[in-house]
Amino acid sequence: MADPSAVAPACPVCAQRAPPLVRVVLPWPPSALSPNARVDRRAVSGLRKSYRHDCGWLARKFGARNLAGRRLSVHLLFRPPDRRRRDWDNLIATMKAGLDGLADALGVDDAEFRLSMDMAAPVKNGAVDVTITEVPS
């Protein structure tokens, strides 16, 4: 995985926020996790667990620490592997396991995340740049 500080410039939405608490680059989620995928649910279960674990591990590797008790804003910058159109609702559903892994690494409930999203130019193999900031009180 690339160093988060070396990835493409931060999106304009993130630039207007407070300095990030955590910035991590996650792998593009497996296509079988999409709600539109026609895959046996038993096969999806293993993929979901694996992607959740991988995302949590990467978050810890990039400096995620326990942020319990803080209000967090999570910005997802999707960098797809190709130029196909994607629906926002399917992208979020596909990222569910990744967001759960991120929440595990941060020691927070993912229901408390305030999500925002953007789409960037495609990159080889795809990626999801995650920027976490604290929501001002």
Could you please describe the fold and organization of this structure?
The chain has 137 residues and is an alpha+beta fold. 32% of the residues lie in helices and 20% in strands. The chain has 3 helices and 4 strands. Strands 1-4-2-3 form a 4-stranded mixed beta sheet. Helix 2 crosses helix 3. The radius of gyration is 14 Å and the shape is globular. The termini are far apart.
Secondary-structure topology with pairs:
Blueprint: H1 12-15, E1 22-27, H2 41-61, E2 72-79, H3 88-106, E3 114-119, E4 127-134
Parallel strand pairs: 2-3
Antiparallel strand pairs: 1-4, 2-4
Features of this protein?
137 residues; alpha+beta; 60s Ribosomal Protein L30, Chain: A; four-stranded mixed beta sheet; 3 helices; disordered N terminus
* Total domain units: 1
SSE run: HEHEHEE
Overall spatial form: globular
- Content of β-strand: 15-25%
CATH fold call = 60s Ribosomal Protein L30, Chain: A
CATH class: Alpha Beta
Q: At the fourth CATH level, what is the homologous superfamily?
A: Holliday junction resolvase RusA
Fraction of residues in helix: 25-40%
Q: Kindly name the structural category.
A: alpha+beta
Task: Please summarize the sheet with the most strands.
Answer: 4 strands, mixed
Strand order of the largest sheet: 1-4-2-3
Give the second-level CATH assignment, the architecture: 2-Layer Sandwich
CA-based gyration radius: 14 Å
Give the CA-CA distance, first to last residue: 33 Å
Mean pLDDT: 86
- The helix tally amounts to 3
The number of strands is 4
Stretches with pLDDT under 50, minimum 5 residues: 1-9
